Amino acid sequence: MIADTLLQHLNKVKRTGQGRWLACCPAHDDKNPSLAVRELDDGRVLVHCFYGCSVEEVLSAVGLTLADLFPKHEIEYGKYERRPFPATDILRAIALETLIVLVSANDMLTGKSLNETDKARLALAASRIQAALTAGGIQS
Asked: How far apart are CA 119 and CA 116, in angstroms?
């Protein structure tokens, strides 16, 4: 339990229910428990000081950080994850870069040579299309 990591640093810890505790707040001179600690079903830990201390102040007083209140997640291969970018944004990016490729291809078909700036922009377009495909979960 992640809550145990925090609770072991606190005084006057009292269990108040399933996954719930009250304790003295280490961030201020607390005589009576004013710190509520709750561990959620997914492993996250919520902390609230009724005196008004911030979560950061409470954790700093016991040598912990916000990251210590959240479970460590390992990536399970083969499971689908929500993509960080909506598909419409990825398609818009690909459409813009495809336009650059189309203009460059048309210039080459009509016999126009690409200058260094045009070549660099075409290479950038290809790179961005590949990055968009990767962001969309498509490996080519």
From this structure: 5
Specify whether the CB–CB gap between 15 and 78 falls below 8 A: no
Q: Kindly report each contact of residues 86-91 with a partner whose C-beta sits within 8 Å and lies 24 or more positions away, as own/partner.
A: 87/136, 90/132, 90/135, 90/136
- Are the beta carbons of 69 and 114 closer than 8 angstroms? no
pLDDT per residue as tens, the chain (140 positions): 688 989 999 999 999 999 999 999 999 999 999 999 999 988 889 999 999 999 999 999 999 988 888 887 655 555 555 556 778 888 888 999 999 999 999 999 999 999 999 999 999 999 989 888 887 777 65
Q: At 35, is the secondary structure helix, strand, or coil? A: strand
φ/ψ bin of 137: left (φ > 0), alpha (ψ from -120 to 50), beta (otherwise): left
> In Å, how far are 82, 128, 139 from 135, measured between CA atoms?
11, 10, 9
State the Rg of the chain over Cα. Answer: 27
Alpha carbons within 13 A on the beta-carbon side of 84: 5
Structure tokens at 108: 């080459």
